[in-house]
Design goal:
Largest sheet: 3 strands, mixed
Helix content: 40-55%
CATH superfamily: dinb family like domain
Oligomer: single chain
CATH topology: Four Helix Bundle (Hemerythrin (Met), subunit A)
CATH class: Mainly Alpha
Number of helices: 6
Strand content: 5-15%
Distance between the termini: 41 Å
Shape: globular
Number of domains: 1
Length: about 170
């Protein structure tokens, strides 16, 4: 079994869990945030929809500069609705899954770098980028969104077992 075939079940499981959370975003709360320095629910949802799109960048390019000198910095596109977030997420997950399934062990063992203004923030094998920059990053922001949902009285779905909101606890 290839490295990517081994990671696909985890990818599928985490993306399915993320979709369950994104489905709960209330359209009337996209601009809500817990603190003035925090991001909005809409930003977190849209960021979650964008993260699977990074699979293409990490497998098909040697690096990404999130703030290239003389260029536009990477920005998460604004959220317009829960439906738009889900559409973007589904499109990115489908493309990401296909890219992972097609990737060879040789490719995913090659290094990839994240840069900011030309400065290397980190370099690691692409398989590690899939795990940390895509999957772990997704899990982190999914938890972030779950807290926002809970603070707004929106039931949090079961992810790794029963949820207090769905189990009647």
């Amino acid at each position: 079994m290839s490295l990517c075939q081994a990671i696909l079940p985890e990818f599928d499981h985490e993306m399915a869990n993320t979709r369950k959370v994104l489905e709960r975003i209330p359209d009337d709360k996209l601009d809500w945030k817990v603190h003035e320095k925090s991001n909005t629910i809409g930003w977190v949802g849209t960021h979650l929809a964008e993260i699977p799109g990074w699979v293409d960048v990490s497998l098909n390019h040697d690096s990404l500069d999130v703030a290239p000198k003389g260029g536009e910095p990477y920005r998460t596109p604004p959220a317009t609705s829960r439906g738009a977030i889900l559409d973007r997420f589904d499109k990115n997950v489908s493309a990401a899954r296909a890219a992972i399934a097609a990737a060879s062990d040789e490719l995913v063992l090659k290094p990839w770098s994240l840069l900011k203004g030309g400065e290397v923030l980190f370099t690691m094998p692409r398989i590690a980028v899939l795990r940390s920059f895509v999957l772990n990053h997704n899990i982190h922001h999914r938890a972030h969104l779950c807290v926002y949902l809970r603070l707004n009285g929106v039931p949090v779905p079961a992810l790794y077992g029963p949820s207090a909101d769905e189990d009647g606890m």
